[in-house]
Please model this.
Amino acid sequence: MANSLKIEAIVLRKLRYGEADSILHLYTREHGRLGAIAKGVRRSKSRFGGRLEPFFRLELILHEGRGDLATITSAETLDGYPRLRGRAASIDAAAKTGDFVLRLLDDRERNEPAFNLLANFLALLDADPHASRREVGLSFRAKMLLAAGFSPELGACVQCGADEGIVAFSPSAGGVVCGDCREQGDFDFGAEAHGFLSGAIGTALADAPAASPDALRQVDRAIGETLEHHAHVRMRSLM
Model:
């Protein structure tokens, strides 16, 4: 990348650094995950104002030197999602989503579907107080698995190809399994959980299907253990 870089970014995490600086964990449209330092941002007269906060979508100009962190030289707000910040449940959902993205997408690789999904989720949290429900959070995670290339096999038994008699989920094999192919380490995955996960991947976030707590726990486990086996990351549960 050139020394000066113009990007669109969402702030996922902000950490204090020194007396007045902050380190930002960003997810960008153009270059995936980036780290940047905002110098003097915690001073009362900072030119950045209150823009460099978690869950802001920004247009940034960065300067890249020899270190791992770029320096933010300019910031313009594209969307601050102000209504999200007025609801504790929405802030909590956004924070859990930011943590999920940081754990899953940890390199400088362009993934525009992942960026768009993240921006759409924050916009939905901003617009709809009910978007903080677990069904929407799990739908986001299911779609992010697809964007990151780790979506499980749901159409048929991942072992034999049978499309009937699906009873369990195999994290190691990466999908659903029938009763005949179930092995040690696989866990119960009922029809409701199967339908929810399949539907969540194929529908808009705002249309996330409803499901019982037991089905949601099965889906949460399927997502978490799929990533633990295949992406080698451990996620915090939503349940």
Q: What stands out?
A: Residues 133-230 form one domain. The chain is about 35% helix and 25% strand. The chain has two domains: 4-79, 133-230.
